[in-house]
Write a structure and sequence with these properties.
9 strands; two-stranded parallel sheet; 8 helices; Rossmann fold; alpha/beta; 16% strand
C-alpha cells in the first residue's frame, strides 16, 4: 500500500472551501498562524478579499478564488489557480455547507436539491478535484471532509441536513476504500463536529416559525479547526469533535 507523506503544517499549502465564515474561517486563520500557505474558496468576493488581506497582514501567504462548490468546473479552475500561485496543494478541506430548519415534509424539493448541491455535491466535486491533483503530487496529501455528528444521530428538525451528512459519510468512506485499492498516496478524513457556535445556523432557512438553537453543549469553531489541521498532518480516518456529540451518538445507537 502506498502511504501519503503528510507534511508539517508550515510546509503545506491548504485549500479551504467555505473559508470566509464559521469553521472555514477559523481553519484559515489557524492554518495561516501555523505557517501554511492558505488558499481560500467561497462565493463572496468581498469577504474573500478582506480575509486574504487580513492573513497577509500577519505575514501569511494567502490567495483566493470565487467558486460555488456545486460547480465542478469552477472548483477545478480554483485548484488550477492554487497550483499556479503555490505550485500545488497538500491538503484540501471540503467545509462549505448550508442548513435548513424544518420538517422534511415542509421542505420543497427545490430546497432539498439545493442543500444537497452544496453539502453533498460540493464534497464530491472538491474531493474529485483534490484527488486528481494529489495522485500526481510527490508524497500525495490529505482530503478532509467536514461532516456532522448528525450522520450518526439525525435530528428531525434538521432532517434534510442530516440526510446530506449521511451521504457525505458514505461517500467519504467509499472514496477512501477506492483510493486505498489503487494505492493512491492520499489520506481521506471525515471530521464530525457536534453543535458548533457558527453563523451557519443564523444563515439557515428556517421553516419552523420559531427561533432555533443548537442543543448543548456547543463548541467553539476553533476546536473543529484544530481537529481539521491535525488531520492535515496525521492519517486520521474519522473523528468526532466534542464529547457531547459522542454521547448523543452512543445514545442513538442503542435506541
Amino acid at each position: 500500500m502506498t502511504r501519503a507523506t503528510l507534511k508539517p503544517l508550515n510546509q503545506q499549502a491548504i485549500v479551504i472551501t467555505g473559508a470566509t465564515s464559521g469553521i472555514g474561517l477559523a481553519t484559515a486563520r489557524r492554518a495561516a498562524r501555523a505557517g501554511a500557505c492558505v488558499f481560500l474558496i467561497a462565493r463572496g468576493e468581498n469577504d474573500l478579499k478582506a480575509l486574504c488581506e487580513e492573513l497577509q497582514a500577519t505575514g501569511a501567504r494567502a490567495a483566493w478564488a470565487v467558486a460555488d462548490v456545486a460547480d465542478h468546473a469552477a472548483l477545478a479552475e480554483a485548484a488550477d489557480k492554487c497550483v499556479r500561485l503555490f505550485g500545488g496543494f497538500d491538503t484540501w478541506v471540503n467545509n462549505a455547507g448550508v442548513l435548513i430548519y424544518g420538517a422534511i415534509s415542509a421542505t420543497t424539493l427545490e430546497d432539498h436539491r439545493r442543500l444537497f448541491e452544496t453539502n453533498y455535491w460540493g464534497v464530491v466535486n472538491g474531493s474529485l478535484v483534490a484527488a486528481e491533483h494529489l495522485r500526481k503530487r510527490y508524497g500525495g496529501g490529505a482530503i478532509i471532509n467536514v461532516g456532522s455528528i448528525l450522520s450518526d444521530a439525525p435530528l428531525p428538525i434538521q432532517g434534510v441536513y442530516s440526510a446530506s451528512k449521511h451521504a457525505v459519510k458514505g461517500f467519504t468512506n467509499a472514496l477512501r476504500m477506492e483510493l486505498m485499492r489503487e494505492q493512491a498516496p492520499i489520506t481521506v478524513s471525515l471530521v464530525k463536529p457536534a453543535a458548533v457556535d457558527s453563523p451557519y445556523g443564523k444563515h439557515a432557512r428556517n421553516l419552523t416559525g420559531y427561533a432555533t438553537q443548537n442543543p448543548q453543549p456547543v463548541y467553539a469553531t476553533h476546536v473543529v479547526a484544530d481537529t481539521i489541521l491535525y488531520c492535515a498532518s496525521h492519517p486520521i480516518r474519522e473523528i468526532t469533535v466534542g464529547g457531547g456529540g459522542r454521547l448523543i451518538a452512543s445514545f442513538y445507537s442503542v435506541l
